[in-house]
Amino acid sequence: MRFNLLLASLGGVLALPMVAAAPPPSGDILGFTPASSRVQREWENKFRALPSPARMRADMKLLSARPHHVGSPYDKQNAEWILKQFTDAGWDAHIEQFDVLFPTPKQRLVELVAPTHFRAKLQEPPVPGDPTSAQTSEQLPTYNAYSIDGDVTGPLVYVNYGIPADYDDLARRGISVKGAIVIARYGGSWRGIKPKVAAEHGAIGCIIYSDPGDDGYSRGDVFPKGPLRPADGVQRGSVMDMPTYPGDPLTPGVGATKNAKRLPIKDAPTLTKIPVLPISYGDALPLLAAIGGTVAPSSWRGALPITYKIGPGPARVHLVVKSNWDLKPIYDVIGKLQGSSSPDEWVIRGNHHDAWVNGADDPIAGQVALLEEMRAMGALVKQGWRPKRTIIYAAWDGEEPGLLGSTEWAETHADELAQHAVAYLNSDTNGRGYLGVSGSHVLEKFINGVMRDITDPETGASVERRSLARVMERASPAARKALRSREDMHIGALGSGSDYTAFLQHVGVPSMNLGFGGEGEAGVYHSVYDDFYWYTHFSDSSFVYGRALAQTVGTAAMRLADADVIPYDFTDLAETVNGYVGELKALHKGMASEAVEHNRDIADSTFFLTNDPRAPLAIPKPEAAVPDLDFTPLDSAAAALTRAAARYQTAFNQSLDGAATESFVKLNQDLLQSERLLLSDAGLPNRPWFKHLLYAPGYYTGYGVKTIPGVREAIEQKEWSLAGTQISRVAAALDAEAALVDRAATELGH
Predict the structure, then answer these.
(1) Which domains does the chain have, with CATH numbers?
(2) pLDDT tens per residue across span 131-154
(3) This prediction's pTM
(4) Any bridge partners for residue 279, and if so which?
């Protein structure tokens, strides 16, 4: 998983309103009758006693013993070992192979050629005492996958985080990057956005470095003394344009099977337009120190011992990137427990097994929890338990380069998933602290119920109450009062960055991403130092949060598989949608006010280039007035969904008391299509692979979510006609959703 994604996930849970929800009636679980709830709790209690921290530790040591990137011998060996764990536990399991484009570097160079000479090391040295950091012959070099080949020389310009707002700031200062090589620090957005935006502004190359102000010594001790990134640590990672589509760049929309029709590499739209390489802050220091020109504003300054300047010049850099552009096999391990009474309804759970190097934290910390869940369920089957619905567990390959394994599997099985999938549960990294949950809001009430039943291993409180305490501690008195007024805690919305993406945003399967974190610092993301030594010294060293993750996600999978009625809740969804509509209105209103203020400032000639009043800015052009947008269709559709959700909730609560479970068969089949109704066959503007109308990664955020993205991004880009079209499209989908929920209430006899 991407480290910043976990932080975003935690933020989605911990920053949004949460309350201490009233416990459900004794013995009741959402979606279960009182009788079936009692039986369910007996099996769950047996399940939660089985995950073993000692076994997770042993599994991590084995799976992270050698580098296991895509195409490596140990990647295949790990997949085969995982398969054996499934079959030994009694699961019906197999490996599903895909063949994907995976470039690996054959030449890399970052060289300062003026005003002095310096050549970057571009490598991470072994650390004494950390045995796997010395496996240099097996480690992938430091690079950004899916950068195009290039050999360029140009002036160096510092662009802060390299996001669109930074280029707006450069333009106000009269600084152009056309024909230049830019250097951007990690953070502020997903790494793939940085070369994308740089190319749009005319840059010929991009260097990305980890600044110690964000990821290094300014936050604490560096590895091996502490957990943070050392001076020579480098963040590898993909720079594929995943907001266009994830997965194999050559087979968009279809599985990358051996006989799949593939695009020519030169026509793959998700490759970068300019060469890009990542470097350490040790290598970045001489480059940044050589830049002259305007002093960077305070918000652009990191923690290196230099005066941060923007340039261009006098620094000039020579950048070379050349790769081997090969197809590589990836190995998805798929295990299945056949459902007893509703085998054609699927609950799917996944975590990836590949890594950039040894990957103890990312992804093995989550993978070992999945293995414990799988083993525990296998043990329950031997004791007589059988899930009502089919449970599918997946250990994905190729997540790190671009969600390859999960995307290709979901694209291959898209028609089946659209007919059968109840939910997809994802995890990735895992550490100590607070449970981060983001996902589909039809699952919000459901996951709140699960969190109330899981004990936090450090405090003894429920996982939910520990998260609540964190929020209350930081909230204002007014905010605390608001937090207490809601039964369920909010979960964040999903953007991208892990294996839920294809399930939710392409196929329309309700999805969640879960993982613990937030205690302690971590600074070895995608480096050779993310290994067993680091994890057992600085993260969940006792693996008790690995057990907590297994208990949480395993309980969720069992409940989804055994519920009499699929436990979707539409009241929290409706409330969330109303909130999103309010945000769109506020965004539109704010842009209109800003345009008026901008034009007033022009008239008053009060613009300045920097905080230095001696550097006046050339007066910019006036902005066109922001036209009105008619949000009435969205308001009406959101109101219809609110009414239907309330009606369904009443019927749902009344019908589960003493009902015959066979009466819910037709209802469950209808509920399966509820998330699918929030898709658009045409997809989002300019990126049809993304079909969900409520959640998508932002086109210029990469991982960060944009809610109601078609409307939101049209407003942000001032495409007013498109915004109106998208309002109508989203409203129609919400109306269809409301109609389905209304029918479901009728089927329940209300």
Answers:
(1) 3-100+327-569 (3.40.630.10), 103-325 (3.50.30.30), 571-747 (1.20.930.40)
(2) 999 999 999 999 999 999 999 999
(3) 0.94
(4) 209
